[in-house]
Fold this protein.
Amino acid sequence: EPKDGSEHYVARMEWAADSDTLIIQRVPREQKVIDLLLADADSGETTLIMSEVDECWVDVRDNLQWIGGGTHFTWLSERSGWAHLYVISRDGSEVVDITAELGAADVISVVSIDDVSGYVYFMAAPTTPLERYLFRAQLEVSEGCAGRVERVTPTGEGTIGTHSYQIAPNGANFAVHTFSSFNDPGYVEMVSLPEHTPLQQLVDNTELNEKLANVATGPMKFFTIDTKSTEVPGVTSELDGYAIFPPGFVEDAAEPASYPLLVH
């Protein structure tokens, strides 16, 4: 129990890279703190190695992974104001943001933490939340290595949209890559990493594209709207949206309320 005797939850408990020690996430009921403790599996004695603190709320993490033979572990944290991935030493004395170059953007999801290749692969959208791309960062925390981020998804025409990946374990040499955009059902392919070289087309959606070519579609647009729902400094109240118009629709010439509207 916490030293102050406060009510709390044991939110997560798992092996700490060996059969002798557990790592525990302990949170108070109001969940403004996550205490990370190492516990001896025989005696139950615990050592507090790190606390994650926020004035409002902290999320319990499910992607803690041990690397370096159990000397370090990965930890997703919003302590900088953005969700970044950190490498933390086993005793909590060393905390390094290995995705620091991502800056004012979130690690949306961790795809693969591969101790063999020495890289973590993750999804991010640094410029707009409407897209998803694959990035990677070195797990190594030595001076000059930590914090560098490299985009893996190619840039250029035909790549703007949403990408997803299933990365093979033990070296992260291959991935199943899926791509789509608003007006393109996309494709599924096998690629090599990190070069992102296409190796085999798995789904090309030729039949679907042929059917869509015969369907009358109208114009569409993305937009943002300010809901004016917050006065908290630094917190935006803008929301993203999109509109799909009927075939032949000309926005500037349309009569007010001349079309039915579906809101999803």
Summary: The mean pLDDT is 91. The helical segments are 206-213. The chain has one helix and 18 strands.
